[in-house]
């Protein structure tokens, strides 16, 4: 069971170091929330010294994220904080004993011998199959029919298998009925060029159909996680908006990781991974705390792999007319 007293004391030491560093760097709580990616409401609770609004593991995770963002992460201090919360340290792998090493070597030798035996059987079987089916089959020499000597045949003898010679009139009629086959038209240079253009167009269309495309990208205040669809799309932000989502519907992804890169007034704020696609369609979203800003322009760049931008959208903070008057 964790020692809440030690956890609170060590946590407040960590928190004082973080808060002091933030003040020395001249950062407001709002700026620190944007820089660290922590929700503004959670950061305010940490700054006020409230370390019990979440279970200790989650509080430690938020403190670690806050400290890393400000560049003051103290591994020793955080180790003590984890121990006070009874979070076990990762166990180092046990070293192999001499006996287990011998057993592993023996198993490896058995596997090696087994692979060698299987390989030898495959080679022998392949050689036997080649001997049976691969060798050319010798055809027997053709048998010549023994025909009688023509000089010994009587004058009226005709071969029973040979057709009678056609008469002169029948040969003439056959010559008149047989007409030469029509010649195939030759391909002209214009026809060949048209075929090449058609082939290139079909290839271009096929390549275009395989390109990664963002079918839908929008800002919203909610996500239907069951249907994997965005809520009502919005095109402006009001100062009362605390956080927003950006939704992407991507077709034919390349299989490389997808990122949502958030920018505020043209400056990078956060780079959020939205997964690695595994099919021909990938729907994803990311959430960002806007910090109740009075003005500004948010931009999300959809990036694939090593920084290849495939889409981007922007939304501006606008004061409603009734508030601006």
From TrEMBL:
InterPro entries, per database record: Bact_Cytoskel_RodZ (IPR050400), Cro/C1-type_HTH (IPR001387), DUF2914 (IPR022606), Lambda_DNA-bd_dom_sf (IPR010982)
Region Disordered, residue ranges: 87-108, 154-215
GO MF annotation: an example: DNA binding
Recorded superkingdom: Bacteria
Transmembrane segments: 114-133
CDD domains with a match to the protein in the record: HTH_XRE
Keyword Transmembrane helix carried by entry: yes
Gene3D superfamilies hit by this protein: lambda repressor-like DNA-binding domains (1.10.260.40)
Keywords: Membrane, Transmembrane, Transmembrane helix
Residue ranges of domain HTH cro/C1-type in the record: 17-77
Protein name: Helix-turn-helix domain protein
Organism annotation: Chlorobium phaeovibrioides (strain DSM 265 / 1930)
Lineage: Bacteria, Pseudomonadati, Chlorobiota, Chlorobiia, Chlorobiales
């Amino acid at each position: 069971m964790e020692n809440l007293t030690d956890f609170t004391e060590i946590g407040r030491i960590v928190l004082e170091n973080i808060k002091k560093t933030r003040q020395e760097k001249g950062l407001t709580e709002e700026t620190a929330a944007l820089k660290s990616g922590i929700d503004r409401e959670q950061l305010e609770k940490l700054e006020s010294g409230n370390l019990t609004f979440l279970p200790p593991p989650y509080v430690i995770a938020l403190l670690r994220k806050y400290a890393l963002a400000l560049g003051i992460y103290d591994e020793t201090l955080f180790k003590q904080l984890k121990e006070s919360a009874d979070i076990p340290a990762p166990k180092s792998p046990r070293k192999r004993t001499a006996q287990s090493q011998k057993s592993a070597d023996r198993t490896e030798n058995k596997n090696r011998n087994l692979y060698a035996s299987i390989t030898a059987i495959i080679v022998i079987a392949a050689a036997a199959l080649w001997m049976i089916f691969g060798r050319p089959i010798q055809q027997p020499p053709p048998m010549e029919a023994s025909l009688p000597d023509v000089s010994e045949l009587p004058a009226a003898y005709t071969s029973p298998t040979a057709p009678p010679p056609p008469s002169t009139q029948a040969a003439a009629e056959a010559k008149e009925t047989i007409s030469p086959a029509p010649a195939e038209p030759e391909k002209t240079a214009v026809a060949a060029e048209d075929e090449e253009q058609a082939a290139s167009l079909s290839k271009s269309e096929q390549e275009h159909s395989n390109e990664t495309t963002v079918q839908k990208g929008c800002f919203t205040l909610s996500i239907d996680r069951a249907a994997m669809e965005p809520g009502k799309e919005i095109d402006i932000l009001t100062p009362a908006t605390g956080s927003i989502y950006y939704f992407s519907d991507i077709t034919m992804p390349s299989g490389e990781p997808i990122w949502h890169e958030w920018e505020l007034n043209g400056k990078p704020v956060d780079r959020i991974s939205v997964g690695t696609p595994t099919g021909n369609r990938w729907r994803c979203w990311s959430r960002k705390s806007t910090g109740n800003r009075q003005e500004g322009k948010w931009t999300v760049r959809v990036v694939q792999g090593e920084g290849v931008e495939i889409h981007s959208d922007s939304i501006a903070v606008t004061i409603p007319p009734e508030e601006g008057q």
